[in-house]
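Supplementary Note 3. Input sequence used for the single-chain structure prediction.
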Amino acid sequence: MTNRMQKVRRLLAAYKIDALIVSDAVNATYLTRYPVSESWLLITAQRTYYITDFRYIHEVRGAVKGVTPVMYSKSVFSTIFELAARHKATHVGINEHHWTVAQHKRLKQACPKGIKLRPANDLVESLREIKEPEEVQAIRDGLEIHREALRYLKRYIKPNTTEEAVFAKLEGFVRRRKVGFSFPPIIASGPNSSYPHANVTPRKIRNNEPVLVDMGVCFGGYMTDLTRMFFLGKMPDLYQQIYAAVGCAQNLAIAKIRTGVKAADVDFAARSYLESLDLAKYFGHSLGHGVGLDIHESPRLSSQSGVVLQEGMVITIEPGVYLPGQFGIRL
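The predicted structure, written as C-alpha cells, is reproduced below.
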C-alpha cells in the first residue's frame, strides 16, 4: 500500500495540488488493498486519512495499515477540509467523474475560502492502468476458473435447453467455486446473439445456430472477461465466413499490440479489416478495454482513445459483427 500511496504523492505536484480526495470506492480499495465501503481518503504529502463513520471506524483501525483513521459525525466534507487545512493545503484535487451533481454542490459549499478545488480526474486511474505482478496473477488465477466454467458449460449447451437453464448451470458452478460474476453473464442463442448485450431469456436453443457466451468471474477482487461462441449442428456458409472474418480481425489487432503503440491503432487494425469486407458497419462498439478491479477500466481501445500502450496493461480484444435478426459473433 505504501508504494501506491507514494506514487500518488509523487503525482500531486504534476496535478498542481497539495492533497487528493479519493471518493471512489474502487480507487480507495486499490490504494489501501482493503475493500472500502462508504468511506473516503484524503492523501496529503505527509499522511493518508481514512475518513469513515461509526459503522466502520473500529474495523479500519485494526485492518488498514499506513492510514490515519478519522471518524466524521456531522459532515464528511467539513472533516475533509479541516484535515486539509491542518496540512496547509490550498489546492485539493478531486475526480469530477465520481461525483453526483448534488455531492459536488455540497462539496463546494463546504470548501473554505482558503482552499481551491482542482480536477485530478485520472490520477489514480493512471496508476491502475499498469498492473503489478500480484494483480496480473490474480487475473490469471481468475481466468483458470473462468476457463473451467466454459468447459463445464459446454456439456449443457444443447438443443431444447433454454438460455435460462444454461445460466442456472453457470451460476451454480461459479457459486461452488466460491467466486462471483464480474458482470451479469450474456447467454444469447440464435438471433438473440445479434444483440451485443442481450439479456438471458427463456428461449430454447436450437440446432444449427450459434450461442454467444460472454462472462467473467471476480477472483480476489479482480475481474476477467471472455466471450466464446458455441455452435450446434452444421455451420451455414455465412456463419463460417463471419466467424473467420472476426477471428482474423482479432488476430490482426493482437499482432499490433506492443509497448508504445497507440490504443487507437490497435482498434484500427481490426476495424479497417472488417471495413474492407463491408462488415465494419456491423461492429458498433469499441475493440476492447482494460480489466482489473473494475470490469471496464482504462485503457479503452477505440478510435477515440489517446492512450499509448505500456507494459503491465491488461486489456481485452473483442471484435464483433452483429447481423440484425440473424446472429452475432464476438470473440
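The radius of gyration is 23 Å. The CA atoms of residues 175 and 181 lie 9 Å apart.
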